[in-house]
Amino acid sequence: MNLKLGLIGNAIAKSKAPALHIFLGELPGLDVTYDLFDPLSNTEDGFIIQISDLRDRGYSGCNVTYPFKQIAMQSVEHCEPSAKLVSATNTIKFGSETRAINTDHSGFIRALTSKLAAAEIGSTLILGAGGVGPIHHWVGNSWDTIDRRFLHPTLVAAICVLFVDNFHDPDIYAVILLASSPMASLYPVFGANYGSPNLTASCLTATKLLSLITISGWILILGI
Fold this sequence. Notes:
By secondary structure, this protein is of the alpha/beta class. It has nine helices and six strands; from the N terminus they run E-H-E-H-E-E-H-E-E-H-H-H-H-H-H. The protein has two domains: 2-102, Rossmann fold (3-Layer(aba) Sandwich); 133-222, no CATH class. 48% of the residues lie in helices and 12% in strands. The protein has a six-stranded mixed sheet, sandwiched between helices.
């Protein structure tokens, strides 16, 4: 069975997705091809032209990445509940109609519950500012602003004190201050688009304030 798949997004030339999908296809004996597409236009019209072309060429479906995950929601005929839940899609399936699906959050939840099936899953701490991180929050995981603005720089400093010989090196100071810097990640951008503008604004205000406190505190402690 031949399965033609692809990925639509910007700056994806070095993506490892083709190798991964071809390998996964080989496991059940599928002949998978996986091509990369970087549209010239980031508009909804440009995206519609791209997926229409793939559908006409016999593709079974495609993945969607930055910056089309939300544009794609307006470019399909049917949205699965998983996509509606977070107002974004990472997977489009072609058939009698084009269907938008979101496996970012379902994959995260399945991976988590497969290892912690018997445990009560409460708050989730996500380290990093990857594009799917905000999605996990907006599907029900709590997000506390203090972790990245206070806990993170404090842990960085503690690790430096314990394991770095030249703790007073200026480069070490830079690392600690960078960890305390104001939020400049995708979280506020994604949050506003996922139906929580007031919560996003409040969190962003809190992170700015905590950043000011932690940066000033570490400058005072480090004596720089």
